[in-house]
Design brief:
Elements: E1 4-8, H1 13-24, E2 28-33, H2 41-49, E3 57-61, H3 67-72, H4 82-94, E4 99-105, H5 128-146, E5 151-157, E6 159-161, H6 180-188, E7 195-198, E8 210-211, E9 213-215, H7 216-232, E10 238-243, E11 249-250, H8 251-262, E12 268-271, H9 286-291, H10 304-317, E13 330-333
Parallel strand pairs: 1-2, 2-3, 4-5, 5-10, 6-9, 7-12
Antiparallel strand pairs: 1-13, 4-13, 8-11
Helix pairs in contact: 1-2, 1-7, 4-5, 6-10, 8-10
């Protein structure tokens, strides 16, 4: 498939896995990232993992907020910033690039009254991150309403976990992790003494929050399905799809699975609930299965494969700080 894809934030956790899957799918890929929270070494590793397809990968260090650079090069960077998104859309429109896959989040569902979450649920970001995603979704919908030439797919991620089976790329966030699995991994290798569990008094089977954990490679394949949909459907408009498994797993269940896979005991500290955290959130994936022809294949509740990948990543690279940092990515098709 002789198509060129621009991937912003492509040196990050989700971005690097998505870039690899795109390369293996026959796409030419241009990655743009300012490396503020990631490492260029991830690009090198992706090229190595892609084998002969690695020659179809190009990388440029660029910040989306540098308007002059954007005018010189059709390369875009998105960093969860509303001003950056507006700049992005303005430059895209100026260069006739009106096809976009945006990385949104299940946080836009807030604290849902029922589960599984379907795409037509009311939206209510319960924290600044969730509200930012909600605002950007609204901006995208407004862009389409004002100019029907736009073709936009909004992908609502649930909870990405795991890593490429090689252990060469994965999630190692800079600073204190916000996500469960990298925190568990850092405790397992001794970088942190304990795992803090926020909230053990929820109305769930073990009192801890329940989330929909999806393998990052399944998530990457969801991006490819969305890209193909944009190429094939001239009337897509602005559509939204959940990317999850449709199954809920608690924090303690994930910790137990990691302990079983790694043979390491994870010391826990119970803390109060964090403001804005929902009790139970998991996806309905029927729309993505029907319209994108996508379904998870590597993700399972209590997935030992996820935990084994994470543990292999921990042991092989022992969390070198030059490794890959977590960053949501966005794909632009020009």
């Amino acid at each position: 498939m002789d198509k060129k894809i621009l991937v912003t934030g492509g040196a990050g956790y989700i971005g690097s896995h998505t870039v690899l899957q795109l390369l293996l799918g026959g796409f030419k890929v241009v990655v743009v990232d300012n490396l503020d929270n990631s490492s260029e070494s991830s690009i090198t590793r992706v090229a190595e993992l892609a084998g002969e397809f690695g020659r179809n990968l190009t990388f440029h260090k660029l910040d989306l907020r540098d308007r002059a650079a954007l005018d010189r090069k059709p390369l875009l960077y998105y960093n969860n910033n509303l001003i950056g998104t507006i700049t992005l859309l303005e430059v895209m429109a100026a260069h006739g690039c009106k096809e976009l896959v945006f990385s949104s989040s299940a946080t836009v569902y807030g604290w849902p009254k029922e589960v599984p979450c379907t795409e037509d649920f009311p939206l209510c970001g319960m924290n600044p991150y969730g509200r930012t995603k909600f605002f950007i979704e609204e901006i995208c919908r407004d862009m389409y309403r004002s100019d029907p030439e736009w073709k936009i797919i909004l992908l609502r991620y649930f909870n990405p976990v795991g890593a490429h089976p090689s252990g060469f790329i994965g999630e190692d966030p800079c600073g204190i992790p916000n996500n469960l699995m990298p925190f568990v991994q850092q405790v397992a290798v001794g970088r942190r003494p304990t795992l803090t569990v926020y909230g053990n008094d929820y109305s769930t089977k073990d009192g801890t929050g329940v989330r929909d954990y999806i393998h990052v490679l399944d998530l990457s394949d969801g991006h490819i399905a969305a890209v193909k949909k944009l190429f094939e459907d001239s009337n897509i408009g602005c559509e939204v799809y959940n990317l999850g498994t449709g199954k809920g797993t608690s924090v303690l269940e994930m910790v137990t699975a990691f302990e079983k896979a790694s043979g390491k005991k994870i010391p826990l500290v119970m803390a109060g609930r964090r403001a804005g955290d929902a009790e139970i959130v998991y996806a309905s994936t029927e729309k993505a299965e029907r319209e994108l022809n996508w379904k998870y294949s590597l993700s399972y509740s209590l997935s030992l494969s996820v935990c084994r990948c994470a543990h292999m990543l921990t042991n092989i690279h022992t969390y070198a700080h030059t490794f890959i940092c977590h960053k949501k990515s966005m794909i632009l098709i020009c």
